[in-house]
What does this fold into?
Amino acid sequence: MITEDLIADHNLSAEEYSRILEILGREPNLVELGVFSAMWSEHCSYKSSRVHLKNLPTAGPRVIQGPGENAGIVDIGDGLAVAFKMESHNHPSYIEPYQGAATGVGGILRDIFTMGARPIASLDSLRFGRLDAPRMRHLVDGVVRGIAGYGNCIGIPTVAGETTFHPAYDRNILVNVMNVGIVEKDRIFRGRAEGVGNPVIYVGSKTGRDGIHGATMASEEFAGDETRQKRPTVQVGDPFTEKLLMEACLELFRTDAVVGIQDMGAAGLTSSSFEMAGRTGSGLEIDLSKVPVREEGMTPYEILLSESQERMLLVARSDRLATVLDVFRKWELEAVEIGKVTATGRVVLFFEGRIVADLPAAPLSERAPVYDRPRTPVVPVGSRGWEGLPEPADYGAALREILASPNVAQKSWIWTQYDHMVGTNTVERPGGDAGVLRIKGTSKAIAVKSDVNPFFCACDPYRGAAIAVAEAARSIAATGARPLAVTDCLNFGNPERPEIMGQFEAAVRGLSDACRALSVPVVSGNVSFYNETDGRPILPTPTVGMVGLLEDVSRRVRMPFARAGDRIALFGETADELGASEFLRTVHGRDEGPCPGVDLEAERRLVDLLVRLAGEGRLSSAHDVSDGGLAVALAECSMISGLGAEIALESGIRPSSLLYGETTGRAVVSFPPAGEDAVRAAAGSLGVPFRVVGAVGGDRLRITVGGRPIVDEPLAALSGLWTTAFARSLESAEVL
Amino acid sequence: MSAVPATRRRFAIVVFPGSNCDQDCYHVARELLGCEAEYVWHRDTDLKGADVVILPGGFAYGDYLRAGALARFSPVMETVARFAADGGPVLGICNGFQVLLEAGLLPGAVRVNRGLRYVCRDVHLRVENTGTAFTRLYRPGEVVTMPIGHMEGNYTAPPETLTELEHSGEVVFRYCDPEGRVTDEANPNGATAGIAGISNREGNVVGLMPHPDRSAEPLLGNDAGRKMFESAVLALAAP
It folds into this structure.
């Protein structure tokens, strides 16, 4: 008997329940209710986001697989393709940071190797609260250890990422993990159940009681002390088993045995079986009694909704069952035939000889409820009067303060805990503009980057999201790579609140416009709603993951200055924009707008220019100008190289904007003096503003504005501060 | 000179469940050196006619219980031990070094890094012994750069073993600063006497925590590690 309480416990609305009655023509039993609850959870069904996501550009000449599969895939030539996706593991990571983050890595890896790709790099995009907020140091430490523990063990390098801090994440941190793999174009596998009579095979770890209803949990907000009660819904990861599972799957993919395969991720066996059947219109018969379990007495309900890690569901050719079982036996993993493909369009689940659920597949997976939720239009946050602030008495001191802030300080404390070199493809290690990985057997490389400035998005979600795309593209182009495609991970508050839905709609529009302008289709993604605790939402955080292609790895451009005597130039114009800058937050303690402007056509020209100059071998270095502004960008090029710089800027706007404003569409490059004319001509032909601002050399960073010296700092001191500030602020945070 | 060209030398790369640098070592042997290379599954007991055996880095058996503690029971290890006893060159890198220690093919043990964290970065190493099968192409005292990537690399041994290692020149690499000074600041994991790598008395079995496989081509930053692989080939070519 299904009571109202049961329905509410399953996070289903009254309307959703009547829709269930309509689809079934009868009352569901408890197992069936659990299946609906998981499949129609926000996490699995995208019911609040779908109407907006459909506006994203998803097609392009290189797109092999767009959204809707385990990962997106784009062609990179030579018979190869890149599979990639980003996903959130926010709620579990706040409850139990080590396992939450670790299983986030495990989940996204399975999405990649499920498609037949060998994962070659991970990225992590992390948002934390203030370091002195309760539990925050524990959360930072646990998340970093979790990502390291899983990624290092399985042997996939974590090569890039970003970490920012803001009080809005005090009680709802974000852990977004992206993975990128390489697949042969004609050896791509998808999550499809086909061929009547073909065996359905369960492989990987045994099923336990962990993570039951994890997807439903990720679709609620937290209140009070729930993190403790919810701990049992967090899964526990075993990277060793995943390593075996990955190698076994990749070995099996070299045979002709596999028809379709899908990771058992969110909502476990439920989502994998219903989605695999739903995509093809096939049916499945599965005997849950055959599922390998960790403990006795597990009910069909628990088996179906468990989110135990390191499991896959695959459909094999009926004459190749033995091949599948042999491969998994070699890797000492469970592999059990648990059912068959049928033509009924229904998923029929048996347990101990009786039917425990009998449901149509497609209505659950493909025709979940879709909501166009009410939304209030976003009112962009403007200035609260920063224009009237006095200029800093000491610009050098302001620079030091910004370099030592947790958002700008070098994050080597984090990335030295990640194995970022295993696989011997990492050409550009963490700390540059983007990770660069060579593709063995070719002359190519890919550049990978994750990006978003949530402070911009908080002021203006439309522009903030567009800037995230533009900035990722600029960072990729700074390495010389041509941006190819995007995955996104959209982290927002409760979509049932109109102001959150307003933010979401605006951000998706911003992504859409920017992806169109820069010709980078969105090929995969993830939405994470309900990121709020006790009614306080996070900043809108639409994380953008981007992949770019370098045709010739030897033409890549690095971020640090390369040679004393090189000219330094700035591409792009600097406006009088301090809104939402690190300068205002750190030096003045002010969190205000407006978000800087963005000119997507200008961004496109800048990307084209950077790629062209790299291809022609004209640049000694290139660096995107973003957090902390021009002064921080110059300091980074200097500190990493150990080469100083003499910079002379023209006045015109207030010097603080010139130095620390975060105007978009800019990059700092250096080149030999003899190459100046060629760089100038290329910039001119593409209509990108170009100005020589100084020269590389010495052991200090000196900046004059209108002839007046305003920064003169010894490089060693700046570097010492920047490289150690993050570890020191972690240590000095008093509250554990 | 040997009748067989150096490039025809064959590397065996042992694969334990959880090895994750096996392909990196294979790439060095095959693509960079142009030698032959074969993977040897941990259950195999045949080294397929190998001239050099590599135990690669990774997390054999997930490093459960203790790094290398389970891998040493793999059937292949008996064959590797016989190969080593017959004078065959065996190199253990990172987790492979941990397996050699657990298997007793090299003395001592590694503990968790003194910082209690995984550390992945470049380190400087001073070459202490150029008489081993894997270091003869280096200059004595040469300072080289290689990356490390480990949680348990804090080498130690009983005092009498350490004395013996020092006296018989079995310390092969030490962590040092760019000028070659062995200092505490230059020591990334707390290893006793800055020991990064050691050999057996005969010099045919070498183990080290740093990764020569990750520093074997300029594209990845430097190629200082390549000479370890080349040394082994040369050792065979000119016995």
Notes: The radius of gyration of chain B is 16 Å. Chain B has one domain: 6-237.
